[in-house]
Amino acid sequence: GNDADGNSQRFICVELGTYCGYGSIFLANTAEMYKSGGNTTSVGDSRKAFHLFTVEINPDYAKVAREMIQIAKIDDMVTVVDNELMMDGTTAHVGDLIKSALTNTYSVGKEGEDSDIPGIDFLMIDHDKDAYKSDLIRLEESGLIRRGTLVAADNVVFACIDDYMDYMKGLDEMGIVRTFTKEASVEYCSPDVQKGGEHDLTFFKDGVGEFEILVFLLSQYGLSTYF
Predict the structure, then answer these.
(1) What pLDDT is recorded for position 192?
(2) Is pTM beyond 0.85 here?
(3) Quick count: other Cβ atoms within 10 Å of Cβ 22?
(4) Which among 126, 53, 138 has a CA at the least distance from the CA of 90?
(5) Of 55, 83, 173, 226, which residue has the fewest beta carbons closer than 10 angstroms?
(6) Pick from 133, 132, 106: which is nearest to 119 by CA?
(7) Distance between CA atoms of 122 and 117, rounded to whole angstroms?
């Protein structure tokens, strides 16, 4: 986020889908290294500038993630936000959850004014594949997705998340975002399999089910920047 003079004051990252926290730890450590430019004397300032809010619906996963984040000594940089699964299968409004977390962390927006609530600089979507588009729209409608927001959505081709991809392509055609897909290695898959080598396993599992290894050698994620 920027102040009135355009100076960077903080970098807000939101992750949808914490699981056990390994992605959160990687994001936080990467941001810390980037902001400090590899200079350990600048690490303190980078920790103050960066904060990751990661949303998880499974309370058991959230508990493990908090423990892992604490072990990694980045709990001052990462906040695990619990979402709630309702009886009808719906969840809490992710925009409201993030706004509440931002309000509590930065003491902003407490008078009912949203204008001083910082927007999201980087959004990582890697949770319920059926909720990619709907939760992104919720964040847009909450005013948290703003000009310059970078959105990365994992497994968009691999998991056939067509509604999300069509939505982003439509925004691209209207000049609202610039979007493209990027090939990446499939998680939980050994290096020799990634390269198409021989392997004893016939199948591997991802969050969307069971697939033949030789068919799905690469994952794809979508990158979109809002203008």
Answers:
(1) 52
(2) no
(3) 14
(4) 138
(5) 173
(6) 106
(7) 15
